[in-house]
Fold each of these.
Amino acid sequence: MSDLLTICDLHVSYHDGTAALRGLSLAVAAGEKVALIGPNGAGKTSLLLTIMGALPFAGSITVDGIDLTRGSAPRTRSRCGMTFQDSDDQLFMPTLLDDVAFGPLNQGLDPTAARKQALQAIVAVGLAGLDSRSGHHLSGGQKRRAALATVLSMQVKLLLLDEPGSSLDARSLRHLADLLAARSEAMLLATHDLPLVRRLCSRAILIDDGRTIADGSASAILDDHDLLMRHGLA
Amino acid sequence: MHHSHIDRFAQGHSVIHALDARTKLLAVLAYAAVLISYDRHALWTLAPMCVMPLGMLWLGRVPLWFALRRVAALSPMILIACLLSIFAESQRYRLGLGPWQFTLSSGQIVAINIAAKFVLALLALTALTGTTPFSQLLQAMRRLCMPRLLVMQLGLVYRYLFVLIDQAMRLRRCRDLRAGQSAPLGRKLAAAGSMAGSLLVRTIDRGQRVDMAMRARLFDGAPRSLATLRFTWADAAALAAAAIYLVFCRLIYPRVF
């Protein structure tokens, strides 16, 4: 498989000088589901935001063959979609349908095509019939799925999921895991939820303090209790 | 938490719900303009202006108590204007209502006029928002050439108002659980100040995250939307009826009665 996402020697610092990522490198192949695990403050969210072109960085990021720069960010964003930790950040339009059609309309689709694509995404995440609901009328699990629909409707190749299972009950988490397992897009899944990683991902990358600590098969990393203990995951 | 204060009855089915949002918005805007145009001493001539908001509420199956509760909730804002008017003008007028005769000062008449206009305008607004989903209202505003960014901001306010209320309620609950209710007044005020500051910071944070989420979905500053409104013959008839009604209220009724 060819690499859909390639990151080389990535450095990211915040305005106050705090280093979020220190020389991180990784690659994700098309269709591959990769878990990004690490303790709080390890740099998981910063990495996802940087891939979306939301944070300044040093190093190189290539998405689907396009080098990420300020000028190319809109093109790379149309190839990768991110769901945020708090789904309320992502559901900003008056109705679910408007929210899910927001991306396709900005991609230049006409309203009829955007509506069709949005309705397909809504059905794909199991929210058929709720398209006229407002974000504040959805449950926590529904909001997660709605947030996923907002990026699926853009027909992206890479999904960046930031803590997709946080604040979900067991049933909603199971639904979400089933939904993600059935998708063919590549995924980079930042999470603390190790059972979800075991269920969904073939590969895991452990990062801590902005650096890659381990990169390998998910089961090998999750079975290394000492490694997880050393990095606050067990 | 579950909120449905603003458009609680908007998803219903009735002849008013079936009308295009633009028809209802235009009718209510025209109604408000006519209401404002009445003289500040007008009392009985305002009577037929009750028909449209009450008719919309009745046909739209929006309970009157719901509308009156909203009027009551917002009435303190207008109360001060009414009270100030009462003392502003002292000239007295003798008025008759059927067999009853009574005397009112000019200030009292103005106060009643302000209160009546306020109640009627709010009833009309409640009838509009109670029979039209907010998303359609925003679309109607967009199609009626209101500035697109302003409409988008209204949409964001509507969407995040509830999130903000949730956060404020959570903060208040946390304060109360830490014996905030029994604290002395000074400490309560200090806590309220901190809470307001915290809410402001959270709101700014939220705004930045929403901006990031919008840009992640290729937002370039130009609002785009799906169009779902349809103007039919029923809408044309409703607009014509509203126009005839408003002309009758403003021009014919005051002269005939």
Amino acid sequence: MIAAHYPALQIVAPLIAAPLCVLLRRGTLAWLIAVAVSWLVFFIAIQLLQQVMASGPISYELGGWAAPWGIEYRIDSVNAFVLLIVSGISAVVAPYARATVAKEIPEDRHYLFYSAYLLCLTGLLGIVITGDAFNVFVFLEISSLSSYVLISLGKDRKALTAAYQYLVMGTIGATFFLIGVGLVYAMTGTLNMADIAVRLDAVENTRTVLAAFAFITVGLGLKLALFPLHLWLPNAYAYAPSAVTVFLAATATKVALYTMLRFVFTLFGADFALNVTFLAGFLMALAIVGVFAASITAIFQNNIKRMLAYSSVAQVGYMVLGVSFFSVTGLTGGIVHMFNHAMMKGALFMALGAVFYRLGTVHLDRMRGLGRQMPLTMFAFVIGGFSLIGLPLTVGFISKWYLILAALERGWWPIAGLVLLSSLLAVAYVWRVIEVAYFRDPPENHPKVTEAPLSLLVPMWILVLANIYFGIDTSLTIGVAERAAKSLLGLGG
Amino acid sequence: MTGELAIIAAILVPLIGAFLIAASHRHPNQREAATLVTATALFILVASLLSPVLAGQRPETTLWEIIPGISISLQAEPLGMVFALIASFLWIVTSVYSIGYMRGHHEKNQTRFYVCFAIALSSAIGVAFAGNMLTLFIFYEVLTLSTYPLVTHHGTDEARRGGRTYLGLLLFTSIAFQLLAMVWTWSVAGTLDFTPGGILAEHASPVVFATLFVLYMFGIGKAALMPFHRWLPAAMVAPTPVSALLHAVAVVKAGVFSVLKVTIYIFGVDSLARIGGSDIILYVAATTTILASIIALRQNNLKRRLAYSTISQLSYVVMAATLVNDFGILGGTLHVAMHAFGKITLFFCAGAILVAAHKTEVSQLNGIGRAMPWTMTAFTIGALSMIGLPPTAGFISKWYILLGALEADAMIIVGVLVLSTLLNAGYFLPIVYSAFFREPDTPAKHGEAPKTMVGAIGLCAGGTVLLFLFPGQILALAHMLIGNVP
């Protein structure tokens, strides 16, 4: 039965497709492969999620080697959901990539682009699916190295420095993570996550474990772009090719957050994180300061991709805030916001990609009057913006609801107030764009532009409609997120 | 048609209308016909709900769960009926009026205008028939967003600035206060359904109860309580039909309607009277009434004067609600309807003066009554209704609010009502006087505005008088709210 091997296929398919693209050396073929593989992994992710929701966690022994010696892929409601996010985004980004890549990247490098893209996809999926701590590191490096390549392919020369910056920060993060995993291994003698979880209890109060915990959280904090470890992100997102920005913004930080959730809750355990360390309070403070600092910075950006990048840092703050409540409602909010933020940022960056496709820039000043020239693209931006603000009938509202509810459940109403105030900052930076696009006349000395081609509009509007659909019908997202939250807190599910 | 279907249809019909309007953007006559047909259909739908509601039924329908435990649900109850009836009837009149205005004034982007108008009406009806707080909040926000393009219709810098204030204040209050209050209510009470008698009293401590009340009242920014009132004058950059229907009826009445709805169905009048918490808002509303009237006195721009008058009149409703007794609820509910007719008449007149005479300032209106006798007669009727004199509708609602204040032994409020009446007279009667009895500064070269506009004005002014003579149905609906079966 092929279905039994879905977990392996999820990783093997993109992993094999990547070198295949290099061998074929043809941009169009490589693109077709990328699309086909993305749709395949999306299909598998849906199957896996259904299976997990129906009959509980799946354990898959790679190569038939039993855990804890062999590598185990372990899928429960938490990572099945993240697999769905990553593969789903890839399924819309891959078709979207063709036009923007053709415009932004020299033709002789197209096949390399798709090859790196597939590797990045492999890495992200791998981090999520694996049940082996060292394997996480391996996939982390695969995804990171390929994303440095992808970012450096950006048209602007600043893309190179941005990629370099990311490389340095990313390597530090990965190294910290590896040190942490090494310390854990030294204390437990195993790399299998489920096994670590059992054995850590006995050595929980040692300094080594505490140090391991610190290394792992800081290392992942870097990959997550948790304030104040976010400095690599704005440039990386701003100068990467459009399709890469969409893909990374919608998936990379979510995967890092997932990894953090997995290590903090499953391996170390919520009790350890709460009782032994000050993690909860610390994360909450960073999250809130991060939300405000990044949102305020976003208001002053004139490069709109950068503006949204800062907004991403703020949104990471919301996710971490949800986690830091250490309650079912809070975690549900944090996890569902991973999904919701992928939808909104995916849609917004796709709209910007279309603007870049036509204008060759996403500078606010050049976007004057764009509301008339590219009505569908800009309307997509408006709805994405509404979602970012958290207006009702969009996914953003659902996330906000859970975050506020989690704060009020704990009786921390000032936190609830801060969350609400921060969404008003989103109004400020979203409305700057809307005013310029709809109230200003187009610049005179530039040629008129027309609406983006369908190959960009269709994926963009799929995500826009997803923003609305999952804001109205939350049975899938909240259903899975709540179950994932319960399972992370050890309350079944 | 069953009541459940009629409610859903009432929300869908304007949306379908919006599509039809957008589809016929190349054929203005067809487009305007679509608006009129939609408006009429909506009114018929709403009116068809009147007799079941008066018979004591509460047609309701639950659509789907949006967050586990909270659904989109709709229900027709007496208060919502008052609001829906007024809004849908006045939409017909406004549509007739706008056709004359928009063409007479050569406005651009008329299709967008009518589309947004239809969406705004759909959301106003949604607010009216919301069966729980979340549903109300959703439609409330859609109403804010769909009216933003109407406020900024002219696309000038002034419009952009006005739009900023409009959207900024309405979003700020609704997100920072109303949403917080709503989630808080949910976490305390475990339900958001509008229930006669309220849902909070057994679950919330007195402090939380009172805090929530204040949060809701300021959170409903559309009720324009000071200091969150500035969006209303800012919205006056909009074309006059927008100011008339939306900022005298649909939007602002959605605000005070929500105030009444929350007071009656979330907190419960009896619980509020017992536990307290409404006093602060009572005095905020009283202050708003007086201050807004004083500001209105000093406005030379006619529409701005009307806007400040609206702010002060909206606070009547808030005061009435926060008196927390039966007469207060009666008076507040009636005032939603009565003020709507009077104020829309006044705005229509302001628009007619703009279109026919190209005048916007109060100081330019000397002797205008001779050139525009119909318009200025209607203006006088509207002004009398604002002051609260018979034979106009404003008298009835003011009467009940006064009774409410007396019953509550709130002599300060009685004083505020008297003073505000004088102030109203102070800023409306001079306009009437100079229009009819002063010599024109320059001989008038214009007559009345286009016939459709004058017709609409006549209808509204007539309605203001008719509501005084026959308040029966509205009064019956209001009585149901305080438990009196007609």
